[in-house]
Specification:
Number of strands: 5
Helix content: 10-25%
Radius of gyration: 30 Å
Largest sheet: 5 strands, mixed
Order of helices and strands: HHEHEEEE
Number of domains: 2
Strand content: 35-45%
Length: 191
């Protein structure tokens, strides 16, 4: 009887030690305590941060280009990409979310037309932390043609289709051009 109680007590202790010392609670090395347990994150917040990083990485920075050559063409290098136009379109017309079988919105048959409406360079000026530069402006008018389909499932199921929907989005591309004698640092020579 005594032997059986001792065996049960040892088994319970081994089970408790095994459960407590696995995964994040190993007891070896530094421990964060209760903060080492991962918390679930809402998909809404995760997508919000991913979108914010995507826009910052690709479109929120102003590049500094080399100087403009005298007598050379002064034209913007690149029109907005389809991805950039679509991000601006989604900001103007949020479609995300929706409730399946109750209310959904779809955009199909998308055609994007990009027109340059302005392309000019400002006179040279000194910008702190950059130096003497010229700001090059390029303005684009992007027209998105699409068909919009809204599916409503309650209280009366029906579908609304707009085959000739369009949205006009204006996108500005600005970048700096260096001005004057450019010093590339101590490791570079001017030869």
């Amino acid at each position: 009887m005594q032997n059986r109680k001792l065996r049960s007590l040892v088994t319970i202790c081994l089970v408790v030690v095994t459960l407590v010392s696995t995964g994040c609670f190993a007891g070896l090395g530094p421990s964060l305590g209760i903060f080492s347990i991962p918390l679930p994150v809402s998909p809404y917040w995760q997508k919000l941060y991913e979108d914010k990083y995507h826009i910052h990485e690709r479109y929120a920075r102003v590049p500094i280009m080399g100087p403009l050559t005298q007598g050379g063409p002064v034209v913007a290098l690149d029109p907005p990409s389809d991805d950039e136009v679509w991000w601006a379109f989604e900001r103007a017309n949020p479609v995300q979310g929706g409730i399946p079988f109750l209310h959904e919105t779809q955009h199909n048959n998308i055609v994007i037309v990009k027109d340059k409406i302005a392309d000019y360079v400002d006179p040279p000026r000194v910008v702190p932390l950059i130096g003497p530069v010229q700001l090059h402006h390029a303005h684009y008018k992007c027209t998105v043609f699409y068909s919009e389909r809204k599916i409503v499932g309650w209280p009366f199921p029906h579908t609304l289709v707009d085959e000739e929907a369009q949205e006009v989005i204006y996108i500005d591309h600005n970048h700096f051009h260096m001005v004057g004698n450019i010093d590339m640092g101590t490791g570079y020579s001017n030869y």
